[in-house]
Amino acid sequence: MSEILSERLNYLFEPRSVAIIGASKSMAKWGYIVPANILAGGYKGKLYPINPKEETILERPVFKSIKDVPDEIDLAVITIPAEHVTPMVRECVEKGVKTCIVISGGFSETGGEGTRLEQEMMDVVKDSPMRLVGPNTMGIYSGSNSLHALMPPVRPVAGKIAFAAQSGNLGTQMLSLGRALGVGFSRFVCIGNEADLKAADYVEYFADDPASEVILLYIEGLRDARRFIDVAAETSPRKPIVVLKAGKTRAGAQAAASHSAALAADETIFDGVIRQTGMIEADTTEEMLDIAKAFAAVPFPKGKRVGVITWGGGWGVVTADALAQHGLELVPFPEETLRELDAVLPPYWSRGNPVDLVGTLDLSKHFKCLEIVASCDCVDSIITLGTMGATSSFQSFAMEGQVMDDAMRDHIKPKVITSDFLKELLKTDEAYRSEVIRLMKETQKPIIAVSFPTSGAVTPMLARQSEVVIYPSPERGAKTLAALYEYEQFLARTRERV
Amino acid sequence: MSEILSERLNYLFEPRSVAIIGASKSMAKWGYIVPANILAGGYKGKLYPINPKEETILERPVFKSIKDVPDEIDLAVITIPAEHVTPMVRECVEKGVKTCIVISGGFSETGGEGTRLEQEMMDVVKDSPMRLVGPNTMGIYSGSNSLHALMPPVRPVAGKIAFAAQSGNLGTQMLSLGRALGVGFSRFVCIGNEADLKAADYVEYFADDPASEVILLYIEGLRDARRFIDVAAETSPRKPIVVLKAGKTRAGAQAAASHSAALAADETIFDGVIRQTGMIEADTTEEMLDIAKAFAAVPFPKGKRVGVITWGGGWGVVTADALAQHGLELVPFPEETLRELDAVLPPYWSRGNPVDLVGTLDLSKHFKCLEIVASCDCVDSIITLGTMGATSSFQSFAMEGQVMDDAMRDHIKPKVITSDFLKELLKTDEAYRSEVIRLMKETQKPIIAVSFPTSGAVTPMLARQSEVVIYPSPERGAKTLAALYEYEQFLARTRERV
User: For residue A356, which residues of chain B lie inside 8 Å, CB to CB?
Assistant: First the structure.
């Protein structure tokens, strides 16, 4: 990418100083909430509130104009109403501010006067070196320096996913969901109206960003289709791009037109873009995070042969269907592997793939079966169902146990589930997690875990999905594995072409 | 259905007395766990432990043989090893026991000797009036009398879904998930090897069961395809049947063959069964509960016209796509409705469907928009995104608020989110829930809520999905609405034929 753009976006995501134009004492104003978020998020750089009428805000001295700040400003965040923005942007340019985020709405997304205001603002920006995010954006997040320049009080987990979203509410909800699930982000930007910086610019920056291992996009329509395609095609062989394209149907495109005002391409066109660029498409909002978290955590499968280990027969059948539907293969095991499994499992086990653990409560056997299957040259990837995250199930069982204890107080004395038993299970769960990580390192094969969420409680393990991934259903695990394999096939085709 | 079968299955699901053959003092044996589950679950009928060697079990007097019990037995539960079952089944028949559940595995699902044992057992049962569940089953649940004759310590919520599953682990996990989500069941049976009672028998019973409003099935293969099709076709016009058919792919069918040993029909055949019978197919395990809970809670849409209200533009676009993909229609509103909405929303609102609430924090406006859209003759159903279950988001925000408070202690004094603010939000959430219920009653249109699970915590509201339904993504809400409409279309075709 151009060195100038790269340098500018470094100022954006790793600013040494941030100014808030429109800083406020009122807790109901974005001029209070955004800097409060920045401070609460633990940002260590300098923060300068700008407001012509106040003395101190958030216990910091206030400057009447950005021009009065006796320091270089890497990032200015503007929260004042649209009609007052241009003069402030002009001051930023005159001050030599490196980058600027215009949070305010009321620009081209509302048409008419808003479009004129955006044009006026861009007339100031376009000949300056300052680059602008938005307008009409919920802001940015950056993990490396814990910068939360965001409207909603979201605290993302720092991680390896770089995310550009053409919707603030969808984007920040994904960050929240990621926090609940322990899925981390390196960068986030709500791209807003893209008056200056566009989707392609962020992708180009993320491609070279050492903090980011996978790029996630929510796109309604492209304002710079030609350049976006070039950048995506150049980036995909180096770093996976996962994309949800909304507005693919006529109804969706209409809704997008009134939301982001970006030109939504019809389904056929975007399918062509996907093929051309090697991006990985997510079909649903849930899949965005399902797939992105796997790209950031596990090796890619080198082929389509899958080994499945299941704690229950029915889930094995469902998984077999899901794998077949996505073009993956449940391979037969060689006799040698079957014999190794014979030594672990009871004589009536099904001697096949999926390996049905036939309900055994002896978790040490789960470990052995996983190692046998993962080590077999016959498979390229592994799905383990029910064992990992059993904590979640057993937490729920323990709660049930409590219910049971209460109900049975009049009937029997012994407790069905003791807290010692539960502690033991938690330990086993952690050990299984470590074993999965060890085997992935040794074999360089992805191991996908499926845990059945019997309670809403997030287990301690679920809250750390940076080295292992856990899915709430076999279908979602299988679909993710297919996405990883799709990318591996794309890489193979790319290598052939070279 | 035959009155005899109906009477027998009443004994099964509403027994006045239960005997446990193989009752045990050992907490590691099913002969202890199953009766412990029954007692803990609050069953009010009589419970008789049977064991030739013990005096008391679970503080109840033990009988050496079922023949010694001085009472009629409606249900006997057998947990002893397969090779000892037949003599006990014979005693049951001689005693005049009405129904019997054989929990024990090691029968036809293992082939060879197991198949012989099952045949031997059925030779005793087939000429008697006693009906048998299993063998190789995790048991049954019944909500009306709180009977938990189950192996896992699951405590389902009592509700309106009758569920027959050809997999114990999948079935009981669904009950657990239902508990976590507040989705209730009237009956559950793990159908096991179907040596006597088969899938069709349970469907026929559920069809006439006043406690059950929707029938949910997990099927790997049919052992009585002809009769099943007849029963399903006769039942569907009276009560919706939601089915997940596993083993539809070759790989899945192979896995099913070694799991349930039922003959899995190939995809084409089962698709024909679906069309012929009017059953509603769930494509994934998550969809089973998504769809079943809606059938048990909301009215069916009379047409395909949908009104969408969203708290954020991006979710609206995603919803528009999902509706179009499932053949539902995002209708334009008449000018009159637009004018009513104009009176509530700011001047720059998009004046269309979806109604974008443009981020307004004044929740009273959400109420008004919902009423305007639901009352409009132009729509047959409504999806409301983000408002209901905001509790969940705000619980998360509140937690974030705490994090924020902690982090900001050195910076600022005022708390960004106070507990009063949170209490107010919780009240609003409850009020919105009541409003949705009121509007569904008045308009007889389904209102589907989508709440974005930003934290793993189950909100109090999420835990009561018997009158309203809440989905974690727009796509899952839209898919469910399509399933409801599919059933309504089937009913319309059926009415035309009459």
Answer: 258-259
Q: In chain B, which residue's Cα lies nearest the Cα of A404?
A: B40
Alpha carbon separation from A274 to A229, A245, A277, B393 (Å, rounded): 9, 10, 5, 33
pTM of the full structure: 0.92
**Domain range B137-296, its CATH number among 3.50.50.60, 1.10.10.10, 3.40.50.261, 3.40.1180.10:** 3.40.50.261
A221 Cα distance to chain centroid: 20
Domain boundaries, chain B: 1-136, 137-296, 305-493
Asked if residue A154 has pLDDT above 50, the reply is yes
Binary contact (B312, A167; C-beta < 8 A): yes
Topology at the third CATH level for domain A138-296: Rossmann fold (3.40.50)
> Rounded to whole angstroms, how far apart are CA atoms B80 and B252?
31
pLDDT (0 to 100) of residue A412: 40
What's the fold here for domain B1-136? Rossmann fold (3.40.50)
Tell me how far apart the alpha carbons of residues A404 and B41 are, in angstroms, rounded to a whole number. 7
Side-chain-facing half-sphere of B195: CA atoms under 13 Å: 31
Residue ranges of chain B with per-residue pLDDT less than 70: 1, 260-268, 389-426, 453-463, 498
CATH class for the domain made up of B305-493:
alpha beta
* SS percent in chain A: helix, strand, coil, step 5: 45, 15, 40
Asked whether the beta carbons of residue B318 and residue A452 sit closer than 8 angstroms, the reply is no
CA A40/CA A58 separation, integer angstroms: 11
Mean pLDDT computed over A295-323: 95
Alpha helices by DSSP H, A333-461:
335-342, 363-375, 390-408, 419-443
Nearest to A369 by CA among A332, A336, A337, A334: A337
